[in-house]
Amino acid sequence: MARLIFDGHNDALGRMWAARETPDTFARAQGHVNVPNARAGGFAGGFFAMFAPSAREPFDLDDFDPALMTGALPPDLPEDIAALAIIGQAGLAHQLQAAGHLVICTDAASLDSAFGSSAIACVLHLEGAECIGPDLLALDALYALGLRSLGPVWSRRTVFGEGVPFGWDRTGDTGPGLTERGQALIARCRDLGVVIDTSHLTEKGFWDVGEAGLPLVATHSNAHAICPVTRNLTDAQLRAVGETGGMVGLNFGTIFLDEAGWTTRRSTIDACLRHLDHMITHAGEDHVGFGSDFDGAPMPDALQSAADLPNLVTAMQTHGFGDALIDKLCAGNWRAFLRNAL
Q: What is the pTM of this model?
């Protein structure tokens, strides 16, 4: 039996919405995350991201080219256009729940109950807050729909802060951090009990979240010392994740793993292990988990979908990780963090 996994980030809802899929397609082997793949790989729960793309077009990860996103940030996305995408994806999550495929978890008790059940435990996450206006009313509406995690930006500017552009051989210190409106958004999320994700914020924005007194969480980021991409975290940031009781989720996306992944979109599980070693050393073994980026990025060889998660577990065993550490990385650390956060 596959070891149960809790994952810090996937884009299945965005994939389904963009391709106009239905809950019926989620029951088939389509995309990285779906019912048969989850069952085969032990994918028992995770953060399901809602993301507003610039255009409603099916994701084509075979054509994924980070060079097209290098340097300048993508254009700002109007609030009303973003809102249509996010409400649609929230609706899909509720349809998947009605079909018995997901359980939308809004507190620690519902997460513990759902994890390991016949349905996937889902923590709804907003990746980029373009759909929320300065009055923050949409935040309360999304909270009522089950939202419990939020990234103020994707790699695109919002009224709340600056996103980090994609780039090689640079840190995430690429511009300003949270705006005054961003500080207000963070404060309201703190009041509601919504997790703040720093994965797409600039380095300045990362530290702004820390100064607000919140645990520093990067749901799908890696170690900059291993792969010098703007989206990855410096050693100082990784230490702060551990010191504040936060979490960092290993991003399986090949462009965040090594130079080969950045240039060719091909990488390996060995690269994942190098990042895990470094992240554990600097953040601590209680503050590292997975943040796959399934359905949102090209995946490494032998880790092409949620069905292949046992290959990663086997690689960790061969690498010398003990059972207790593997349990923490697979699910224990995320579940412990969320018991407090929710």
A: 0.97
